[in-house]
Amino acid sequence: MYYYRHILFTLLVSGCLTLTSYAAHIVVLGSHDREEVQRQIQFYADLFAFDSTVSLLVTFTKDIPQNLAAFTQFQEASGSKQIHIKIHKYTSPSEVGITLAHEMVHARQFVQQDLQHKGGNFYEWKGKDFTNIKKIPYRQRGWEQEALQQAHRLYYQYKKQKRQDVLIAGKVK
Ligand SMILES: [Zn+2]
Fold first, then answer.
1. Which residues surround ligand 1, an ion (CB under 5 A)?
2. Across the chain, which distance is largest between two alpha carbons, in Å?
3. 143 C-alpha to center of ligand 1: Å?
């Protein structure tokens, strides 16, 4: 009996681990529409195949450097990849979607090590060193060009998926 229960317990535990091992951990703070933000971040995380080694924290805050709508920080410690997206609390609802898509492109660049922060203003982009990114205009930075190019398409993909989900939910009812 003990043996049987032990097997059952092992199965349950491994079942749980399997369920979570593919999904990134996502936490959203300070948003008026947390569920929607969570759904959107989840969509991009799945699209980019982020696994359980990736944690995403999305904070809506007034504590953001001047002239910035949002920014993304990345940290890796003992195999765990932590992404913190900060987005200005007063970003208009119509802009939140595209801003999140843009920052999630940066998240992917960090996770896939296309973009690496070497400290201070020193970054590495696709194997090339940029010792002082402040000297490069925003729109000439490779990672920004990529984010600017991809954000609209990603957000469109998300909205299309959401419409399909609504249609399916409608049919079930
Ligand atoms: Zn950017």
1. 144, 147
2. 70
3. 7
Measured between alpha carbons, how far is residue 96 from residues 87, 151, 168, 172 in Å? Answer: 8, 12, 25, 30
3-state DSSP assignment of residue 27: strand
Q: What pLDDT is stored for residue 7 in this prediction?
A: 44
User: Pairing state of beta strands 115-119 and 80-88?
Assistant: unpaired
Q: How far apart are CA 14 and CA 20, in angstroms?
A: 10
Task: Identify the CA nearest to 155 among candidates 91, 96, 83.
Answer: 96
The two structure tokens encoding residue 159: 């909205």
Query: Considering only the top CATH level, what class is 23-164?
Result: alpha beta
Query: Taking the CA atoms of the chain, what radius of gyration do you get in angstroms?
Result: 19
| pLDDT mean for each 10 residues of the chain (173 residues) | 46 42 84 94 96 96 88 93 96 94 98 95 97 94 97 96 85 63
Q: Where are the domains of the chain?
A: 23-164
Query: Would you say 64 and 94 are in contact if contact means Cβ atoms under 8 Å apart?
Result: no
Residues 126 and 108: their CA atoms lie apart, in Å, by 13
The alpha carbon of 7 and the centre of ligand 1 are apart by a number of angstroms equal to 49
Please state the φ and ψ torsions of residue 64, each to the nearest 5 degrees: -135, 135
